[in-house]
Structures are given as C-alpha cells and as structure tokens.
C-alpha cells in the first residue's frame, strides 16, 4: 500500500500544479487587462501548455474562472480569519470590513479587482449555487464573529446569525462600488470606517 501511495501522490501534485498554472495565467491576463473576455487559447499560450492539458482540468473558461475566484476567496478568508480570531468581536468586525474594503495597492490589483467584480456579477446571475459556494468561507467567518459578539455581550442576542451574516457580507461587498460613487453623491468617499459604523447600528445591543 505504501509503495502505491507515492506515485498516486505525485500524480495528484502534478495535476494540481498544472491547474494552478492555468489559474496563475488567467490571473496575469486579468491583471493586465481588467477583463474576463480572454480566450482559452490565450491562457494556454500564457501557461506554455496545450489545449489538451487545459481541457483535462477545466471543461470551459468559466470553470477556470470559477476555480480562480473560489481559490482567491478561500485564501483571503483564511488570512482574515487568522488576523481576527484573537480580537474582540467588535474589533474583529472592524478589521474584517477594512480588509475587504481596502483600496487596491497597485494598478495590477485594481485591474484584477475590476475584472473579478464583473465576473462575480455574472456568476450571481447565471450560477448562483456556484457563487454561493465561492462566498461560503467569508459567510462562515462573518457568522463566527457575530456568534462571538453575542457570547461577549457585544452584539444583540436576537440576531439571526446565518441570515444576518449573509446580509452584512453582501452589504460590505456591494458597498465597494461606492468608494468613488460616494464622493460623487455626497462629496465623501465611502470607506471601511463608514461601513463598520453602519453595520454596527444593526448589531449592537
């Protein structure tokens, strides 16, 4: 049994490596263009592989993009959980909202954010179940912070945690569009501090 496990493990590692190569190539194109209307052939050429190799891992470009956004969200949420798990609930919520709403640190990151925002809208409209899976880690983290806040006496005990976590999460994600629009509407860009204050009004005792 042990002798067989080693080759199987190597094959899985090679498969994951190729899948990650396609995702890195798609991410690089996103960073350059801010668009998701690139072709499978562009991804293949960027990754220096073959169409056959691509279709061994992903049935369509949509499957590739879905895997990419799912990985980005899972990785980001894992970092945010580590950063907030030792904080009191109110501070944890503030830190999480600030991380989510932080402006891009480079033009490349801004392009990636714009491209993925458009693609997330597409997912929400065409593949809501898959989009819910993408958001599940973040929804879970928000829910854990709310439960911690209830236990600490910081947040209201009558919160419907799963539902309220979904509303809070989508409020923050949707408000990202208001960073520039807020300045046009009322002369003040909307940032993480504004969002945190707004959300607290529905949570505190």
Walkthrough of the structure:
The chain has 205 residues and is mainly α. It is built from 10 helices and no strands. It is globular, with a radius of gyration of 20 Å. The relative contact order is 0.10.
Strand content: under 5%
Helix content: over 70%
* Largest sheet: number of strands, sense, barrel closure: none
What's the count of strands?
Answer: 0
Discrete helix count: 10
Q: Provide the structure class.
A: mainly alpha
- The rounded Rg comes to 20 Å
Shape: globular
Mean pLDDT: 88
Roughly how many Å apart are the termini? 58 Å
The succession of helices and strands, N to C, reads HHHHHHHHHH
Could you provide a short overview of the structure?
This protein is mostly helical. It has helices at 2-33, 40-47, 51-57, 61-84, 89-101, 107-126, 128-152, 161-175, 178-186, 192-201.
Lay out the secondary structure.
Blueprint: H1 2-33, H2 40-47, H3 51-57, H4 61-84, H5 89-101, H6 107-126, H7 128-152, H8 161-175, H9 178-186, H10 192-201
Helix pairs in contact: 1-2, 1-4, 1-6, 4-5, 4-7, 5-7, 5-10, 6-7, 7-8
Question: What keyword list fits this structure?
Answer:
disordered N terminus, 10 helices, 205 residues, mainly alpha, 0% strand
